Amino acid sequence: MTASLQLYGVQTPGLALSSKRLEFGTKTSSSAIFRTVEHSCRNIALRVSCEAARVDLIERKETETSSLSGTGKELTCVMKFGGSSVESAERMKEVANLILSFPDERPVIVLSAMGKTTNKLLKAGEKAVTCGVTNVESIEELSFIKELHLRTAHELGVETTVIAQHLEGLHQLLKGISMMKELTLRTRDYLVSFGECMSTRLFSAYLNKIGHKARQYDAFEIGFITTDDFTNADILEATYPAVSKTLLNNWSKDKAVPVVTGFLGKGWRSCAITTLGRGGSDLTATTIGKALGLREIQVWKDVDGVLTCDPNIYSGAQSVPYLTFDEAAELAYFGAQVLHPLSMRPARDGDIPVRVKNSYNPNAPGTVITRSRDMSKAVLTSIVLKRNVTMLDIASTRMLGQYGFLAKVFTTFEDLGISVDVVATSEVSISLTLDPAKLWGRELVQRANELDHVVEELEKIAVVKLLQRRSIISLIGNVQKSSLILEKVFKVLRSNGVNVQMISQGASKVNISLIVNDEEAEQCVRALHSAFFETSS
Ligand SMILES: Nc1ncnc2c1ncn2[C@@H]1O[C@H](COP(=O)(O)OP(=O)(O)O)[C@@H](O)[C@H]1O
Ligand SMILES: N[C@@H](CC(=O)OP(=O)(O)O)C(=O)O
């Protein structure tokens, strides 16, 4: 006896429906079904929602979405507010006023956890591992989180019942962690999810209280389907039609402003809560923008848009009015905290402009990110610093002309699952940096072992030098003017007595990367900023 599933999808939005029938034995495990479904549906946008041991396939009906348009009441944009924008009741009230000050917009709201709640939750989890069950009550961070959310409810004038269950659930979870004396990546994601679950409930209740009808949504319940890479999950294609269906269907029946948790998803295999990596609410926002085909995605921060450098390094950083998706993606990937590294992908795919604005200074124009911009006058756009990078100098032990050397080097990294950031090569030697986000996210011991292992493997074919505590300074801008940029860069660095250890010009044509010692990096950024943005020549 067999069970069969009919899959429906579209190759590209708007094109003809394609469908596929799959047959499984009734004893086939759910994970085997998921694997087959995933394989069969590559590049087919499908509504697949995963529940414990169940695959739910929902037929895509093109008419569903189109029947919602033309009413003049469609959702128009996404407005994402980060932790700094919703850190207190006062800030939430200001954000509500800000939303109401755009009466022509019908936004989907995406919120992060309040202020530094995510950090506090992680700290509480770490303390719970060692403190003993009877001491969980006195974890300082738990008291802080409880007090912050209860006070916020009181100050907003909403019932504390909207968050009571979550506060109790959090307490129980921390007790569980302390009993198990273990905090797995999966539990870590469940733990931090309390932040976004509570901020959205409070905010939505407040909007309703002031007469602006709103409805709270947990992203993991409305189709945010991700890989099972806990703490760093990636959004799967099936998310787009699923999220679109839920939000648009509900909106067509009831015009309540959707308030969605940022940062969270549901692992497609595990069905457990996942997170999209730190700062992941930006990615939630752009995913919703693409899923619903909205006019604009706004990400509201505590700075006047994307700046010419990290304001924590140099307070004179200026706001950048225009960026392309490629520039913004490169900037985020190379460490500018202001945007999540993957957040530009859905916006670029859907060709939806992203506006980065300041919720503390709404009148500032901010930064508009689009597919293209006038580059004729552009030289340097922004300077980004990534610290604590590991660099490897690898020289082949064979003679010049040895083919396959580079392939062997990269196979080693692939086999060990380590990603590489910046590369400079000759035929017999290669210098590269290792992605600190991937490497440093792991436990200290595991990290050291992995580095040893990399060196050990590479030493079979090369002489390897491991150089730690380096920084990548990425110059994002018009690489068509690279000679001009480099001339200025080397003049500045020479006058500051800094030796560049490696240089790489990305094929993306928007980024030149320089590797310097960690101790020299901030001073370099300040000197480069002064030369490029504060002097006329
Ligand atoms: N190039 C840059 N432009 C703007 N902000 C930057 C840049 N580099 C680092 N930052 C930092 O990013 C912060 C905003 O990002 P984030 O804290 O993730 O915002 P939110 O939590 O509001 O989404 C700023 O407060 C600033 O300190
Ligand atoms: N709260 C999560 C997700 C997020 O996006 O936050 P923020 O928008 O405040 O950077 C974090 O701190 O990582």
TrEMBL record:
Biological process terms in GO annotation: lysine biosynthetic process via diaminopimelate; threonine biosynthetic process
GO cellular component: chloroplast
UniProt domain ACT: residue ranges: 394-472, 474-537
Pathway: Amino-acid biosynthesis; L-threonine biosynthesis; L-threonine from L-aspartate: step 1/5; Amino-acid biosynthesis; L-methionine biosynthesis via de novo pathway; L-homoserine from L-aspartate: step 1/3; Amino-acid biosynthesis; L-lysine biosynthesis via DAP pathway; (S)-tetrahydrodipicolinate from L-aspartate: step 1/4
Catalytic activity: L-aspartate + ATP = 4-phospho-L-aspartate + ADP
EC number: 2.7.2.4
Coiled-coil ranges (or none): none
Keyword terms of this UniProt record: Amino-acid biosynthesis, ATP-binding, Chloroplast, Kinase, Nucleotide-binding, Plastid, Repeat, Threonine biosynthesis, Transferase, Transit peptide
Class in the EC hierarchy, top level: transferase
Cellular location(s): Plastid, Chloroplast
Domain of life: Eukaryota
GO molecular function: aspartate kinase activity; ATP binding
Main localization category: plastid
Record-stated family: Belongs to the aspartokinase family.
Function: Involved in the first step of essential amino acids lysine, threonine, methionine and isoleucine synthesis via the aspartate-family pathway.
Protein name: Aspartokinase
Lineage of producing organism: Eukaryota, Viridiplantae, Streptophyta, Embryophyta, Tracheophyta
